[in-house]
Design goal:
There is one protein chain. Helices cover 62% and strands 7% of the residues. It has 1893 residues and is an alpha+beta fold. The radius of gyration is 55 Å and the shape is extended. The strands form 8 sheets. It has a 7-stranded mixed beta sheet, sandwiched between helices. Strands 4-3-2-1-5 form a 5-stranded antiparallel beta sheet.
Length: 1893
């Protein structure tokens, strides 16, 4: 169809925009031919009119369908134009956070300005071995493609990385080199790949700097060739550099820095070794402070300096050379600070003794005088003589800067040469991959010679790029046999000719440089005259005569001619160089030793924005001196031509780096900057070339799968090609819009969009039809449901209304009646309340008035007292202040007088001085006066001391008098007290008389009190009954509460136990995994060691003429496989030693490997010990939890016991109260009152009887409680045997009442066992307070203070119990410590016993019994002496110990008797066997009779019955047959035949039966050699055939079976309980092979890991294709359009893997393991590991493939997982844990299918995806891609919501799952029911030399 037909209503187009470059709009009406305007609506809703160009009538670009937006390859877009490319890159970068995109053969990389987790080792492993189109775009994919093509095509490769400064070129090149170093490795042990990576820090420090666009900008171009050998392993590298910006050494713009190395040196200036450089802060030097930005955020220059020095060391730059480099760099900084001053207008001078010049000369080893002279002078040579001419200051400064740049360039080249030497390899290079990191196209406001050279280089690279793209397009068309039409593409050869052709710009520039008076102006005029108006690409600016414009492929660039000639000449003062050559500094001389031979200086002259440096090349010997005059432009053109020749000889791969914004903001996209770079880097040119032909390409199968919905059933034929042809002819009428190739269909631009539109319309119609039917059915169903509900509601509502009416009538009648009585009651109540209130108010008012009057009187009295005190205080205060004022005035007056006196004295002193000057003779008189004054001073001092002594004596005397007065006052007080005492005694006498009267009166009222007490007793009994009932209720409540608490405690403890158990299991698995990883490393080192020995053997044992070494079954290095040296066979050791003597081994490597093996074995032992400790800790934790449970349950019983004890205490207290009452009555009442028969006596007896009855009832309750407690105890004792005592002091402290403390401790004292309180204190106190509520008048019984005495006694009891409790606690801790010490001694004794046992095993059988008895006697003697010392202070314990010792001696004597009997029995059996042997020898002699003799004798046929021989399950073999046994049973055994025809595990049984015989005959040497040979044989066969799954599985099964046999027949009780009595008879009797069991276990672990590796290698190619790419459910997902880089087809073509392939392979694995007799538990572990690999590989590919993240693919994955689960169910493996390993994959598939819009959806996703990490969830959401227009993309806001909700998760930031992870394997004991004596050895095994015993 025509393109104009697509511009219909609602079609979306792109229109130009000044800010966003392109804006999206939608057509409001159809476009018709001839329309000049288009009615459009922008995305923001604004309606606009777009005018068409009247000349071209070009319509705006159409927008691609939404399902094509965000594609991995830009060439997959249907419409290929600039806005589509820009929008696709923006969507991928901003929404999906994807920085890489393919554009045909180009990888577009956008700098994110943020560290992304996509460069780890897991990502490298994921991309390794993958096709370039099978994974999402990545720099690793480009590197893998180049590496693969190098290996496949045997052609060198190049990766060309270009872009602006700050676009990420250096980082991309660095990651590419890291990929090569990781996937290839090195061919030697020199770690070349590490050196290649180590070159980056060095080159970045000396060649990178901070610019306004980039903090780490490369200021030079480099081409690194990474060399590979024939195995495609890295052997070395070589670096070529271009375009060093030398001007940065002496000048930096604002916000820029010099090269990093200068700042690193300044930051490390305080280091001791760098103090000689005399450096300081970077702001102190002119060359480092011009940019005013010495620090980069987030960069530590001192730390970077450490990395740089480390890299130098790694690359072989020694410490002296490093210090030399730092000296030169520091000298450059000091040179920049050398101050040059004007002497006059034509000359300059360096001030004498300039500090910085002095340091420069010291560091460079030159003289100060020479350097200061030639900094300010130059030498002029003429034909006749030489002149020395001074130069002005400006020229001197420029000469100084030129010298600094020249030195730095020389140092840069020297470092590059040394890096290349370090990376150079002696091995011949087979191929290489080059990585080019070079400037991109540059254009600034002022462009000079540097930009001209850079853009010239980019023109050459762009030409090479265009030719390569054109060539690929042509090859594709020819391959598919498509008619080839010439594509018109931009050829920039005219621009290149303008620059480099004859009379071109460079040629004219060189010519002008050779002119004596050449200048920039004359050169510009020559350019105008030569090219203006003659070349269409050359223009002249209108307003300038010193500039020119060139039309480059990317843009027009205006160059300023100023400085071109000087920069092209690149001059430097030769005299300065001569001075440097005479230096004593060796490194500096080395830098300039080839100066005469150099083809050109390495940098341009000063001035300008940048300076260029061309790497030096070696000259030919016959080259003339005129080569020294070669210009920079000529040299640059030659080096660029060499680079282009290198690139043309390789297969190029292109990486274009884009800078998204100039502010370095992360993930911020500036469309104008991006489109400028896209135009400059050639991406749009690639698109234009693709769009000119057939950009969209489909295979026939993909086209059929995608557009099957557009076909009718009759159109579908068996031939897919014919079907597609017929459909396209109907859908697209124009035959030129598509072409049919051999395997693909080619479409013009826009045709795929048209087909997508047809497909979407067809699907939309189908959806509408389905929606119409479904909605009709739903609404009909809803209507019927609503109608039925309405009828039901009506029925119930009417009934409800009738009932409500009846209820209303009844309520109305009742309300009237209630109102009548309520109103009457309310009024009567109100009247009574008012009456009572009136009385209360009157009473309170009168009382208030009386209190007020009393208070007023009291206040008046107190006021008078206060006034009296205050007035006295005020008077004293006034007197005190007056006194202070008077004293102050006196002080002031005296001070004033003293000052006047002082003034007079000063005047007199001055007059004395004057008089002294006038009268010198008066000096003697003055001296006399002075002495007199001194004497007076001494007298004054003596008087002062006397006064002080008098004052002290006065104070002492005063103190004595004061004490005397105090004593007299006390005497007076005592006399006053005596008088008061007499008065008190008189009052006491009166009181006693009064009390006598009161006693007589009390005697009269006793009967009244008895009656009162009777009533009180009755009330007390009633209260007790009530409390009894309440206690019963409380008891029931407590029982229920106890049960609930018990259940809650049990659940809590079970939960805690489960969590701790789970944690311990995780730790145990981690330890096992670490241990098994160490075994893997051990095995790798062993294999490496064996390989080295084999290589050395092959190198040394060269066959000589006439002699050939015979083959041997065992190699010389076989002893290397042995586990321990003591198990090794002496003959093999001797043979190994002989071979070592023959071959000159690399002993350092051998010792290194041996040391590593020893370390691994030690680490293995430590891990095993740690594992044992963990298991012991787990056991202790489990025991501790059980104790806590027992303690909790015991606490509940103790609570019941406490209640019972309190009831007993209460009953006893009541009984005591009654006895005291009886006693009180008998003492205080008259005899007649308390006599028997009196009324009072009867009343008291009745009360006593009732109390006794109450006591009996309480006793019955106590018995019931005790029985319940006993039953509960018995129930608890069935589950637990002991409980810990817990103190109850906490509850006791919380009891506030003294009665509570009393009753509690009475209960404690009378209890038979210590109570335990764990219930809440509040509940206990409440219960006690209810039990002990006393009568209200108990104070009558406390007249004699009895209760107080009881309370004091109980306090004493409390203290006693506390002390006892502390004593018990200390004794418990002491006992615990003693038990620990005993446990440690038992462990040590156990170790000694094991050592002695091992020693005894080496002894002959006769000496073993004697040695064991001797050891036992020694042990008992030591133990006896120990216990005598221990129990010296305790005879009873010592007696008990002696009795136990005698019992043990008796037991030993009995054992000795049994052993004697056994010896006698064995001797008898030995005699019987000797007799049988003699009979056998006789029979053999009879058989040796000659045949003739036998024939002569008569033969009598006799029927002799055959007696069945009783076999012992052993196999006998000779020592020399051991090698044949290993060879036939292990090395040459075919697993397939054994697995099919024989019993599983037969080799293991045979080996164990041979081992049993060796044990039976007590031949320890035979046991060792057999086990060692077996282990070595298994290792050898696994090394030889380790890639064969059946072999590895077979020997894993047999190794496990052999291990189980060693355990089953070891004689240990834990294993023997699984055996039959007959099997127990076959146990090993002489040797303990526990150590060999550990060796076999380690061997089984290694075999298991090898099996997993083999299975993984088989499954790996099937997983991605079967689980992701293959459409198991046909028609669910359609294939989207793909670009130039085709992915593997997801359609099941012939040869591709499907899910059925995976299931068939799993069936094969499972059946093979079952045939080999593998343990079921081991099969489960293998299957779990395989499912983990399937899930991990699938999920990793899902996370790296955007096209797989869709709704339909999620359905496919879930279906595939369900098929795997079904397979597990069929094999009864659901309990293996394999299903759980697929949980991350299942959740990822669910994540693809759930809704992803609202916050509720986000919450559901966060709770559902608990097996996925946050990074994985966000990655899947970012990669989610709609396949159809009905799906929607995930918004950025929703992804941010997910990130916010998951930010608190603590998890690893790793994105991909570890596919190399192997779960730790265990080998549970699996005994065999097979009887050894029934095993028959088939003849096919060739084991006839074995004899059954």
């Amino acid at each position: 169809m025509a393109a104009s037909e697509l511009y219909t209503k609602h079609a979306r187009v792109w229109i130009p925009d000044a800010e966003e470059v392109w804006k999206s709009a939608e057509l409001l009406k159809d476009y018709k031919q001839g329309d000049a305007l288009l009615q459009l609506r922008l995305d923001d809703g604004t309606d606009v009119e777009h005018k068409l160009d009247p000349k071209t009538k070009n319509l705006p670009h159409l927008r691609n369908p939404d399902i094509l937006v965000g594609e991995n390859d830009l060439t997959a877009l249907s419409y290929l134009h600039e806005p589509a490319i820009l929008h696709n890159l923006k969507v991928r970068f901003m929404d999906s956070k994807l920085i890489y995109t393919y554009c045909g053969i180009v990888l577009v990389a956008i700098n994110p300005y943020e560290t992304l987790p996509i460069y780890g080792a897991d990502i490298i492993n994921a991309y390794s071995g993958q096709n370039m189109g099978d994974m999402d775009p990545h720099i690793f994919a480009v590197a893998e493609e180049s590496y693969k093509q190098m290996a496949r095509d045997e052609r060198n490769q190049s990766i060309i990385v270009s872009g602006e400064s700050g676009a990420g070129k250096t980082v991309s090149a660095k990651y590419a080199m890291r990929y090569f170093a990781t996937v290839s490795g090195s061919a030697s042990e020199t770690n070349v790949e590490e050196k290649v990576l180590a070159s980056n820090p060095i080159m970045e420090s000396i060649g990178n700097a901070k610019t306004t666009r980039n903090d780490n900008s490369s200021r030079f171009g480099k081409y690194i060739e990474i060399g590979f050998d024939k195995k495609y392993q890295i052997i070395g590298a070589n670096m070529r550099t271009y375009l060093l910006e030398k001007s940065r050494v002496v000048f930096q713009a604002d916000d820029e820095r010099n090269y990093h190395i200068f700042y690193q040196l300044c930051a490390s200036a305080q280091l001791p070794e760098l103090k000689v450089l005399k450096l300081g802060q970077a702001t102190n030097f002119h060359y480092t402070k011009q940019g005013r930005s010495p620090v980069i955020d987030g960069v530590d220059d001192a730390k970077e300096m450490v990395n740089t020095r480390h890299a130098c060391t790694l690359l072989g730059i020694s410490e002296p050379y490093q210090m030399g480099i730092f000296r030169i760099l520091a000298a450059i900084l000091h040179l920049g600070n050398v101050e040059i001053k004007d002497r006059d207008s034509d000359s300059s001078i360096v001030p004498p003794n300039n500090a910085h010049l002095t340091v420069f000369c010291d560091l460079m080893g030159v003289t100060y005088q020479d350097m200061s002279q030639w900094l300010c002078h130059k030498k002029l040579k003429t034909a006749a003589e030489t002149y020395i001419k001074p130069i002005p200051k400006l020229q001197a400064v420029n000469a100084r800067d030129a010298l600094a740049k020249h030195i730095y360039a020389k140092l840069f080249d020297w470092i590059v040469d040394h890096v290349n030497k370090a990376l150079r390899s002696t091995v011949s290079q087979n191929s290489f991959i080059g990585v080019l990191d070079i400037y991109g196209f540059e254009t600034f406001e002022i462009n000079s010679f540097e930009q001209f050279c850079i853009n010239y280089a980019n023109e050459k690279l762009q030409q090479q790029f265009n030719m390569h793209v054109f060539k690929l397009e042509q090859e594709e068309y020819m391959k598919e046999q498509i008619p080839w039409t010439l594509i018109d593409f931009y050829d920039n050869q005219p621009c290149i000719n303008l620059i480099e052709a004859k009379m071109g710009i460079l040629d004219l520039l060189d010519e002008e440089c050779r002119m004596p008076k050449g200048s920039d102006d004359t050169w510009a005029q020559k350019l105008y005259n030569t090219h203006l108006n003659k070349c269409a690409l050359f223009h002249k600016p209108r307003l300038s005569n010193k500039a020119f414009i060139i039309q480059h492929f990317a843009d027009k660039v205006e160059y300023q001619c100023d400085g071109f000639l000087e920069k092209n000449k690149d001059t430097v003062n030769e005299e300065q160089i001569t001075v440097l050559k005479t230096s004593k500094f060796e490194l500096l001389v080395e830098l300039f030793q080839d100066e005469e031979k150099a083809t050109t200086p390495t940098g341009p002259p000063p001035g300008g924005r940048t300076r260029l440096s061309i790497k030096q090349t070696k000259t030919r010997p016959g080259q003339t001196s005129r080569d020294h005059k070669k210009t920079v432009g000529l040299q640059f053109r030659n080096s660029l031509q060499l680079l282009m020749d290198t690139l043309n000889a390789t297969t190029p791969h292109y990486v274009r780096c884009i800078k998204p914004n100039d502010n370095k903001h992360p993930f911020t996209f500036d469309p104008s900057r991006a489109v400028q770079q896209l135009r400059a880097c050639g991406v749009l040119e690639t698109i234009r070339i693709s769009a000119a032909g057939f950009p969209s390409r489909w295979t026939y199968q993909e086209f059929f799968s995608r557009y099957r919905v557009l076909m009718k059933q009759k159109d579908v034929l068996n031939d897919r090609r014919l079907t597609c042809r017929n459909v396209l002819e109907k859908l697209i009428k124009d035959q030129d819009k598509y072409q049919f190739g051999k395997t693909k269909i080619f479409f013009r631009a826009g045709q795929v969009a048209y087909l997508e539109k047809l497909r979407a319309d067809k699907l939309r119609v189908a959806c509408i039809r389905i929606q119409k039917t479904i909605r009709s059915w739903l609404l009909r169903k809803k209507y019927l449901r609503m109608r039925s509900a309405a009828i039901t509601i009506q029925r119930y509502v009417r009934g409800y209304q009738a009932r409500c009416l009846a209820k209303f009538l009844r309520r109305t009648q009742a309300a009237i009646t209630i109102q009548k009585f309520q109103r009457m009651y309310r009024e009567r109540k109100r009247y009574r309340r008012m009456q009572a209130a009136s009385l209360v108010v009157q009473c309170m008012l009168r009382a208030y008035m009386a209190r007020q009057k009393y208070q007023a009187m009291l206040r008046e009295h107190k006021t008078i007292i206060i006034q009296k005190r205050v007035r006295g205080w005020l008077a004293r205060l006034y007197y005190k202040r007056s006194l202070e004022a008077v004293v102050y005035l006196q002080c002031c007056i005296r001070r004033m007088r003293a000052r006047r006196e002082l003034k007079k004295l000063k005047i007199e002193a001055r007059s004395v001085e004057h008089f002294k000057k006038l009268n010198i003779g008066m000096e003697n008189k003055i001296m006399q006066l002075q002495r007199k004054v001194d004497e007076q001073q001494k007298d004054k001092k003596a008087m002062t001391e006397r006064l002080n002594s008098l004052a002290n004596s006065y104070s002492v005397e005063s103190e004595k008098l004061r004490n005397e007065v105090e004593r007299l006052r006390l005497t007076e007080e005592e006399a006053r007290n005596n008088s008061n005492r007499i008065t008190t005694l008189l009052e006491e006498l009166a009181r006693l008389k009064k009390e006598l009267c009161d006693t007589q009166r009390d005697k009269r009222i006793i009967e009244e009190w008895a009656d009162k007490y009777k009533l009180e007793t009755e009330q007390l009994v009633a209260e007790l009954k009530e409390q009894n009932s309440l206690l019963k209720i409380e008891k029931d409540d407590l029982n229920r509460l106890i049960q609930e608490q018990n259940q809650e405690m049990t659940e809590k403890m079970e939960k805690a136990l489960a969590e701790e158990t789970k944690q311990l299991e995780c730790e145990l698995n981690e330890e096992r995994s670490r241990y098994q990883n160490l075994l893997t490393e051990h095995r790798r080192l062993e294999d490496r060691h064996d390989d080295l020995k084999e290589e050395m053997t092959l190198m040394v044992n060269i066959p000589k003429p006439g002699h050939r070494r015979t083959d041997s079954t065992h190699s010389s290095n076989e002893s290397e496989y042995t586990y321990n040296s003591e198990f090794a066979e002496p003959e093999e050791n001797a043979r190994g030693a002989e071979d070592v003597t023959k071959a000159p081994l690399d002993m350092s490597l051998f010792l290194k490997l041996q040391k590593r093996v020893t370390e691994l074995e030690q680490e293995k032992q430590s891990l095993q010990n740690e594992l044992d400790k963990k298991e012991e800790q787990a056991y202790r934790a489990r025991a501790r939890e059980e104790d806590e449970q027992n303690r909790a349950r015991g606490a509940e019983l103790e609570y019941e016991s406490l209640k019972r004890q309190e009831l007993d205490s209460e009953n006893k207290k009541l009984k005591n109260d009654l006895n005291e009452l009886r006693k009180a009555l008998s003492e205080k009442s008259p005899p007649g009152v308390t006599a028997p028969g009196s009324p009072a006596y009867k009343v008291i007896m009745e009360q006593l009887n009732s109390s006794n009855e109450e006591l009996e009832v309480r006793k019955e309750e106590v018995l019931i409680l005790r029985s319940q407690l006993v039953s509960q105890k018995e129930a608890v004792h069935q589950k637990q045997t002991m409980t810990e005592a817990m103190p109850c002091m906490e509850d006791v402290r919380k009891m506030k009442d003294a009665g509570e403390i009393t009753q509690a401790y009475i209960a404690l004292k009378e209890s038979n066992r210590s109570p335990k309180f764990t219930s809440k204190p509040v509940a206990v106190s409440d219960l006690m307070s209810r039990i002990r509520s006393p009568p209200q008048d108990y104070h009558a019984l406390n007249e004699d203070g009895e209760l107080w005495l009881v309370y004091e006694g109980l306090k004493e009891t409390n203290r006693l119990l506390e002390s006892q409790l502390q004593t018990l606690r200390k004794s418990h801790e002491n006992e615990t410590e003693v038990l620990r010490e005993e446990l440690q001694s038992v462990k040590e004794d156990n170790n000694r016993q094991q050592q002695l046992l091992a020693q005894n095993l080496q002894l002959p059988p006769e000496a073993r019994i004697e040695a064991s008895l001797q050891h036992e006697i020694t042990r008992l003697t030591n133990e006896n002496l120990y216990f005598e010392e221990l129990y010296a202070d305790d005879p009873a314990k010592y007696q008990f110990y002696r009795i136990s010792l005698y019992k043990r001696i008796i037991d030993l004597m009995e054992q000795l008797e049994k052993q004697d009997k056994t010896v006698r029995k064995l001797k008898k059996q030995l005699k019987v066997f000797a007799k049988k042997i003699g009979e056998l020898e006789v029979s053999s002699q009879i058989e040796n009779v000659s045949p003739g003799q036998i024939i002569d004798e008569p033969i009598h046929p006799v029927n002799i019955p055959r007696k069945e021989k009783d076999f012992q399950g052993m196999l006998e073999y000779k020592k020399e047959d051991e090698s044949k046994l290993v060879k036939n049973l292990i090395l040459e055994l075919k697993p397939r035949g054994v697995a099919v025809n024989l019993i599983p595990g037969l080799p293991a049984y045979i080996l164990f039966m041979c081992l049993r015989h060796a044990d039976y005959v007590n031949d320890d040497q035979k046991v060792r050699t057999l086990l060692t040979s077996t282990i070595n044989g298994i290792k050898k066969i696994l090394k030889k055939r380790g890639d064969d799954y059946e072999t590895v599985s077979f020997w894993l099964s047999n190794t496990c079976r052999f291990l189980h046999c060693l355990k089953q027949y070891s004689g240990e009780e834990s294993f023997m309980k699984h055996n039959t009595p007959r099997q127990n008879e076959h146990c090993l009797s002489n040797f303990d092979l526990a150590e060999y069991r550990q060796v076999l276990s380690d061997l089984a672990i290694q075999i298991y890991q090898q099996l997993v590796k083999v299975m993984e290698n088989i499954l790996q190619p099937m997983i991605v294709s079967g689980m992701l790419e293959h459409e198991t459910i046909q028609g669910v997902s359609g294939v989207k359009p793909t670009g130039l880089r085709k992915r593997t087809s997801s359609i099941a073509d012939e040869g591709t893997y499907t899910l059925d392939s995976i299931l068939r392979q799993l069936n094969s694995f499972h059946s093979t393991m079952c045939q080999h007799g593998t343990d079921p538990e081991l099969i489960k572990q293998v299957v779990k590991q395989m499912f983990y690999i399937i899930g991990a590989v699938t999920l990793n590919n899902l996370l790296l493939r955007k096209d797989m993240c869709s709704w339909s693919k999620g359905m496919q994955i879930r279906y595939n997982v369900s098929q795997l689960e079904e397979w597990l169910r069929d094999k009864n493996l659901m309990t293996s844990g394999a299903k759980e390993t697929l949980e991350p994959l299942i959740q990822a598939a669910q994540l693809l299918q759930v809704k992803k819009k609202t916050d509720e959806d986000a919450e559901a996703i966060c709770s559902m995806c608990n097996a996925l990490s946050t990074a994985q969830i966000v990655k899947v959401l970012n990669l989610y891609t709609p396949v159809n227009e009905f799906e929607e993309r995930v918004s950025v806001a929703f992804i941010r919501t997910i990130q916010i909700r998951l930010r608190d998760r603590k998890e690893s930031p790793q994105l991909l799952m570890d596919t190399k992870n192997i779960y730790p394997v265990t080998f549970p004991f699996n005994p065999s029911s097979l009887a050894l004596e029934t095993i028959q050895i088939p003849s096919s095994l060739n084991l006839l030399f074995l004899t059954r015993v």
